[in-house]
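Is iron/sulfur cluster placement plausible here? Inputs below.
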Amino acid sequence: MKNRNSFTSCLSPRQIMELDACTQCGECLRNCPVQEVTGNPSISPPEKIRIFREFIRATEGVKARLFGAGDIDRTLLEDFTKAVYECTTCGACGQDCSVGIFTQRLWPMLRNEMVRRGLGPLGAQANMPEAVRNTGNPYSRAAAERFAPWRPDIRIAARSDIAYYAGCTGAYEAQPMARGDVLVLDAIGEPFTMLSAEEEVCCGFPLFITGQHDMLGDLVRRLVCAYQGKGIKTLLCSCPCCVNFMTRDWRPFYGGPLPFRVRHITQFVADALGRGRIAVKKELKERVIYHDPCYLSRGVGIIEEPRIVLRSIPGIELLEFSRHGMNSRCCGAGGAARKVFHENAVAIGRLTIDEAVDKKADKLILGCPACYAKVNEAMQGNEKQIRIVDIMELFAAALR
Ligand code: SF4
Ligand code: SF4
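Reply from A.M.:
I modeled the complex. Tokens:
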């Protein structure tokens, strides 16, 4: 694609208005985790928006309409591409934005535009479509390894109203989390089904977030049809990225309303606690601190349910990070940036670890497989150390 072609064809009317609405006030700079660890001004939201507006002006502005589109310098395009991929898409800037720009979706769509121009994605992110095509997951791991290493011997129904989707990152990179999920579902006692390891393919989020959209329609339709075949009414997931993408974006890729609803596992467990389907009797005298995943809190507004689950454990003392809920700080792994900007991700992850240790927590509780994998990596070689536990891993242990 030539640099002179439109830069707005991937954007919704709302996103075009958002780009126009930015006042360059800089309110959003306060909580950007990447700026915090790199000090790099080019990744700042107003700077990305300012440059993208220049691209639009050069190709679709008044001068371009009168005299033809101008060419855009390749180095400028490459620098912009790096900046938009170095961002973790955590959305903290959108939370602070004085005009309400929904940055958690604007940045991925700007990435999509750069992919269409052959400038993105970056590094290992480019291998993901082929990996998903060949193996069903972005890690190129065998389907035979998807459930076997962690799934305990529990009853999985052939058909049910409820299905559990483990997700690729949970199944391959955060197995204590996926194991905790199914143990808790089993303890609740309502029958649930799962697809086979071959049928349960990637939900599409890693491709979406890196701007590689070509396969998404096929992937989404394949999964929705497979779950439809099992007669489900509710699909449960614990990965915030899966829940976020399924609830916000699956519908257009599927081509209509989904034939079931998607819920996060903490919503289901909080309901089960409220209905008396499950209760923890064992006391756990520990101080724990819970990290809100960006795609769960800012992404879909699930903030209270994980806390209901944690507070249901007798004896537990729940601490809070200085930034929590809608203002939580990214773990560093978001937006597939961890695949390329490893050092940023480790530095950001260590800010979370250090604060948890400074607050004298016994355990750092996570609720996202990407956070789980990256924060565990960030712990290696870090001066301050703390035990990392997934929320369902902890709850399943308390139930035992
Ligand atoms: S989404 Fe997060 S990492 Fe990206 S610019 Fe905004 S605050 Fe920074
Ligand atoms: S807070 Fe919003 S309007 Fe202000 S610079 Fe940031 S993105 Fe632009």
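Short version: The mean pLDDT is 95.
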